[in-house]
Amino acid sequence: MATSRRDYYELLGVSRTAGEAEIKKAFRGLARTLHPDVSNEPDAEERFREVVEAYEVLSKPETRELYDRYGHDGLRGGGFTPTSFDLGSLADLFGAFFGDDLFGMGGRGGRARGADVVAQVEIELAEAATGTAREVPFPVTIECATCGGSGAKPGTQPVPCATCGGRGRVQQVTRTALGEFVRAHACPACGGAGQVVEDPCLDCEGSGRMVEERTLDVEVPAGIHDGQQIRISGEGHAGALGGRAGDVYVQVRVKPHPRFVREGNDVFCTVDVTMTDAALGTTVTVPTLQGEIELELEPGTQPGTLRVLRGRGMPVLQGFGRGDQRILVNVQVPRRLNEEQRRLLEDFERSASAETYEADEGFFQKLKSAFR
Ligand SMILES: [Zn+2]
Ligand SMILES: [Zn+2]
Hints:
The protein is an alpha+beta fold and about 375 residues long. The protein is built from 10 helices and 15 strands.
C-alpha cells in the first residue's frame, strides 16, 4: 500500500498545536466527505486513505511525537505501518474508529427502518390546475397488535442474542503495530436486533409485523406535473421490531385532456372555424381551465393564427402566477359542395382579385411607409 509523504497536519487541515478533540473533529469531517460511499471524485479513495493514515498517526501521542520530531522517516524507523483495511461502509468505519453510529440513525445493525411505500393517484388536468385532495389506499405493514411488534408469543419475551450478547454487533479485531483496530459488523445471528424470538407470535409468525390496508388523505398541490411525487413521512411500512416506519411516496399521474396539451405551465389547444367565418369574422367558444370563454376572431383570420390568453394556463407549482393558454386557429375548408355552393364559390372567385387576399401591412411595412 502506498503511504503518504504529505504532511499529516496539512492533510487534516489542522495546526501543529491542535489538540486531540480538534484532530478528531477534522478527521470526522474529512472522512464524511471523502469516503468513497459519498464522494464521486476519482481520487477519493486515495485521499481517504491518506486522511485515515494521518489520523492514525496524529491521534496517538507516541506516533505523533515520533512524527513531530523526525517526520515520515522517523515513523518508518519506529516500525510504523499504516493500518491496512478494506473500505467497508462509512458507518462501519466510524464504528471502528469512534465506536459510535455515524449519523445517529442506528446505522447498520440497528433496528431497521421500515421500507417506503409507493402509491399512485390519477387526477384530471383541471384538478391539477386547482389542486385537489384524494383518498389514497395502499397496503402497508404495521406493528402486529397481538405481540406489540416484538414477534414473541404473548406471555413470552424475546431473549438477548447469545452470539452478540444483545449488542446487535459483533467486533472483529485486527492487530497492527499501533495496537488493536476494531471493526464492528451487524450480528449475523440476530440481524442486528440484539434479541431473538424463541417462541414466535402465531399471528405474525415472529416478524412483529402484519399487512393492513390503509387510506391516507393526500393534498395534491395546484400546478403539479404528471409523474411528480408527494412524500408523506413516517406513514410507510413499520420498521422491524420497533424500528422507525418508512415513508409513503404518492406518485401523481395527470390524465391526458381531450382538448388541452400541457407544455410546462402553458396549455395549448386548437379551435376550428369555417372558411367563411374566418373570412367574415366571428366569435368562437373556447374552453379554458376555468370554463368556456368567447373569443373574437377578426375578419380575414388566417389558418395557423395563434392567439394567447395570458395567465390562463396552469398555476406555477409552489410559486406565483400562471402560464398562458395558446390557441391555434384551424380554418376548415369545405370538402363536399352541392351544385348551388359550387356556383356561389365560382361567382366569388370571379369577383375576387389579388387585393382580396393581400395581407395587411406588417409592422415593418408600416415602418417603411412612414418614411416614404
Ligand atoms: Zn405478532
Ligand atoms: Zn446477535
